[in-house]
Design a protein that fits this description.
Helix content: 25-40%
Distance between the termini: 10 Å
Strand order of the largest sheet: 1-6-7-12-11
Radius of gyration: 28 Å
Largest sheet: 5 strands, mixed, barrel
Structural class: alpha+beta
Mean pLDDT: 84
Number of helices: 5
Number of domains: 2
Low-confidence stretches: none
Number of strands: 13
Length: 298
């Protein structure tokens, strides 16, 4: 075997080994996170990593419409591919893609939770795939001969959507504010108020520089700290009086952030199958690498 061919084969086989191992461990870890995290109710969920199951509800804002079909939805993702043919080589090349960043509202009967979908692995139930001759279709593809007339180019479109009333499984970082839910760290809140006041130091001097010497002595700084403490307590009372607001977003740690129309068991089963596929790819790559190295030695 030529040296160049051997090196290329080793590159592919070692890549399959490493890639398969990485994919298998990732999917296995995600499945364990899903199964080990108990399902919570929005109203009583603890702060931090949490799992919910509810129904997607409409927002009060203007209704969102998907970019390729124009159909109403809460979230969308699309992909446009162009058909390319050169001799015997035929393939689809991705020319455009995108996804919505509109927030979602999940309700489970105990409360509502707003979800920021950025960074999430979204697995919608609704998916449409069709073909046409326009780069940006205005609606669903036409059928029959008329659908193939037009420009000489051929495109394939795919669009996924989340819609009102669909069940949604969500797991991610859960945070609440208002309603007395937020923790009270008086020292940190006091420091934040002082930093804010220091941003307008002339105003700070005007309020607390009693001897008007352009400086704040120790006694005046004590007055600043006391006033900041009272301000922090007043802000906390005002925030606690507001209705509770719940949010779900991407965790800071390497934990799965998943939004899916499927249930937990179905997702975990799917991830386990993908983990098994990654392990099989890793094994095949390792055996191929060992065989290629043996060929080189011989």
């Amino acid at each position: 075997m030529a040296l160049e061919g051997l090196l290329l084969s080793l590159l592919f086989s070692s890549g399959a080994t490493v890639g398969g191992a990485w994919w298998s461990l990732k999917r296995w870890s995600q499945a364990r996170h899903l199964l080990d995290t108990p399902t919570s109710k929005i109203r009583s969920a603890a702060q931090g990593y949490a799992e919910f199951y509810g129904v997607l509800a409409a927002q009060t804002d203007a209704q969102l419409r998907a970019p390729l079909t124009g159909k109403p939805c809460l979230w969308w993702r699309f992909r446009i591919e162009e058909y390319q043919s050169s001799g015997k080589k035929r393939s689809w090349r991705m020319v455009e893609s995108g996804s919505s960043e509109a927030w979602l509202r999940l309700t489970d009967g105990t409360g509502d939770c707003l979800i920021d979908p950025r960074g999430a692995e979204v697995r919608p139930l609704v998916r449409e795939v069709w073909q046409g001759h326009l780069r940006h279709p205005l609606g669903s593809a036409k059928s029959g001969l008329l659908g193939w007339l037009g420009s000489g180019k051929r495109y394939r479109y795919s669009e996924e959507r989340l819609q009102v009333g669909q069940p949604l499984y969500a797991i991610g970082d859960f945070r609440s504010s208002g309603g007395g839910r937020q923790a009270r760290d008086l020292e940190a809140a006091q420091s934040a108020v002082i930093r804010e006041w220091k941003g307008d130091f002339s105003g700070l001097l005007q309020r607390f520089d009693s001897d008007r010497n352009g400086q704040l002595d120790e006694q005046e700084w004590r007055r600043v700290r006391l006033a900041a403490q009272l301000e922090a307590e007043d802000r906390h009372r005002q925030e606690s009086a507001q209705p509770a607001q719940h949010h779900l977003g991407k965790p800071a740690e390497a934990r799965p952030f998943i939004l899916a129309n499927a249930g937990e068991d179905e997702l975990a089963r799917h991830f386990h199958w993908q983990a098994a596929g990654g392990a099989a790819l890793c094994l095949v790559g390792a055996l191929a690498t060992a065989w290629l190295l043996g060929v080189r030695v011989l």
